[in-house]
Design a protein that fits this description.
The complex is a heterodimer.
Chain A lengths: L1 H36 L15 H10 L11 H17 L9 E4 L2 E4 L8 H22 L3 H32 L4 H6 L6 H4 L1 H14 L11 H4 L9 H26 L10 H22 L5 H30 L2
Antiparallel strand pairs in A: 1-2
Chain B lengths: L1 H22 L3 H21 L3 H25 L15 H21 L13 H9 L4 H24 L2
Helix pairs in contact in B: 1-2, 2-3
Classes of the chains: A mainly alpha, B mainly alpha.
Chain lengths: ~325, ~160
Amino acid sequence: MITVVLVAAVKSVALVVMVLLGFAYATLLERRLLARFQLRYGPNRTGPFGLLQPFADGIKLIFKESFMPATADRLIYWLAPAISMVAALFVYAVIPIGPEIRFFGATVSLYIADVNVGILLVLGASSIGVYGVILGGWSSNNKYALLGCLRSSAQLISYELAIGLAVVSVVLTAGSLSLVDIVNAQQRLWFVALQPVGFLLFFIGALAETNRAPFDLPEAEQELIAGFHTEYGGFKFAMFYVGEYVGIITMSLLVTTLFLGGWHGPLLPGPHWVAVKTFAFMCLFIWIRATMPRVRHDQLMAFGWKVLVPLGLLNVVATAVIVALVGG
Amino acid sequence: MGTLAAFFILSAVTLIPAVVVVTSKNIVRSALALVPTFFGITGLYILLRAEFVAGIQVLIYAGAITVLILFVIMLTEGGTGIRIRQVNEQVPVGALASAVLAALLIWVFLRTPWPQGPGALPEYTAAQIGTTLLSSMVLVFEVTSLVLLISLIGAIIIARRER
């Protein structure tokens, strides 16, 4: 009993540290890559290749003055960034990053929990993340923040549906809601080959869920200053930032898990493949940000409800018929 | 023992925010207090080994319905920022009515001989739920989908009329 709790605690701490380090370097990766795309250097002064830049940023944000708008709703204003960050970190409890390994003579699984409704848990946690945005925007009592949060929550609810439908088709193909089982079902053939439509739906939905370009309307700075986190500064702002970037890592990891066979791959051991695939998707996210212009809000809504959702439904029906015929 | 403790903790998690929902003077906080309530109920589902229902509970109730409620409050003119009174002058009557209802419910619960069938719980609930919905419960399932479809169309018609 004690050892079980201890192993889970050690794994959780290791994972949170890893994810937070991943977040720190995701910000650096984004700044450096964006700079490359725009023919400039990006931050390269702090440490070799600017590798210490994220820590400099973090320390700066911690020591900034903690201010608050006079008319803000105190409790909710403080709660919102925490919800954003915790919801983003929570999903790592069920995302597997590798199969079981031998470690000091003991068999250790490279996931914290293999829940039999794992993918539902991930979707649920990401839908809880909406509260960080909506409450942050509302509680700061600022019209730009409120507009930003309303836009954002409309967007998140709409595109969650597309993601959900893409996930349903994957679940139908794999025959399980557990992420470990889904990865194991892809041993021979990755689901990106079996579910190309689902893959596209999921990827577009993931861009919208993480408020990334071309769907970064919640933070359209020309119209809304900074959107829902206009009134946030210092470490509270950093917590929103953690939520956002951890969300990008999560979505890349989920694409890898659901469509690209997770830890399956030749030569290298499992976790390396997960890292390589996830990294590739994060670069793709940044590449898209550097390339695509922002869409208008009505275009965003029309695209979500009139294209992605019907396509997702058709995909689910087609998958269900094929699975029933083949006898999945 | 652990189950009982978990049950009491989860009940507190469910009930305390529920009191906030009906007493808070701030309507946004009222709506927001629904979230921990739904989480408490999710915990109770997990305690009953109904993981699928628990997942759906988080996804639909905590994740979607409460967001929609907040959305409506924020879009309504004067919906936020004003202090509201949730009770009127008929508090004693209401308290009496709820006390009678509570007594009635407890009486029924205590008198009901809860049947405890033999055998173990099914291992994997999602597949069981799907099979049941499309076999023995198919009529209920179809009627529910019709009701949902009708309300969907109704909502669209009402929203369109205003233009």
